[in-house]
Amino acid sequence: MGRELRLPCDLKFGCTPGDDVAGEDYVSTLRQIMDNIHERVRSNIQGASDRMKETYDINANDGRYQPGNQVWLYNPQRRRGLSPKLQSSWEGPYEVVTRINDVVYRIQKVVHFNRLAPFAGSNDEQAEARVRHVSPPDSELSFEDFMSLHSNGQKARYGVTREEPRDLFQALVDFCLAHCVAADLRMSRGIALTFKKAFGQLEELRRQRPEVGRVLQITAAEQEKERSVFYLVTKQLSHHKPTYQTVWDTLVELRDVLLSQSISSLAIPKIASGLDGLDWRVIRSMLEVLFRFTGIEILVCCYNPRRSLNEKTVDCFFYQTSRCKN
């Protein structure tokens, strides 16, 4: 009721209510300690900033680009389907038009100094024109890796193959032809029989000692021009069935032959998927993967001259039984 409380200790030791006690300076002391901490932190931050600026100034090459110099522009762009290691991060060369300030330059657009690099000139363009640049095939992808990815019909499309409903034997003369055969070279059924009647030269094929996995080659004269015809040996006997492994090995051999002869256009039927019974989706993915980096164009001719283009491949069961309502 307006009076200060006197505790038993005050009565014992004789402390009067007006005397100073030790706890009264706690708040002011705490405030002083916090101010000292903040001051030290600000000092350390400023020191770190000064050290960083000093390091940057040492590494920066200020003022080496002048108007008229040619430079590369650092402009990384991610492209889907390519590893970042295979993508170019620099483009150009560009000519420096204006130096706006110490770190900003104008070429065809305003860019920062750190995105530029000096251009030292181009290589001999005539020497480069004589070299055919072919990217190496993806050696990391083995047959087992391919089958684990595409055996379920998953598509691989890199723009290598192109399907068209046209007659294979009416393809442009600039396209070489290829199809699958057995090592016995009987060719008694299917499109193999048509190849046998059209081009013959069985003795020449036998002299090349056909074996599973090999590619046989003959030259046929058509329309006053010559083109190569390749026979892919994918099985031992005509009544046997090829496997995806033998088709893979034969296509690898075909790829090497085409590259060695600088052939860039190939026309084929839907190989290994007719009487041989393999899944064309898997075979096409093989072609896409194996020929991805070769620059070879593969035209797949799927036109059957005995069947109208408007006719269904497999008739509807209800249509056959005259019960189809559509």
From TrEMBL:
**Which Gene Ontology terms describe the biological processes this protein takes part in?**
peptidyl-glutamate ADP-deribosylation
Residue intervals passing through the bilayer: none
List each copy of the Integrase p58-like C-terminal domain by range: 92-118
InterPro entries recorded? ADP-ribose_metab_enzymes, Integrase_p58-like_C, Macro_dom-like
Q: Please report the name of this protein according to its UniProt entry.
A: Integrase p58-like C-terminal domain-containing protein
Q: Which organism is it from?
A: Aromia moschata
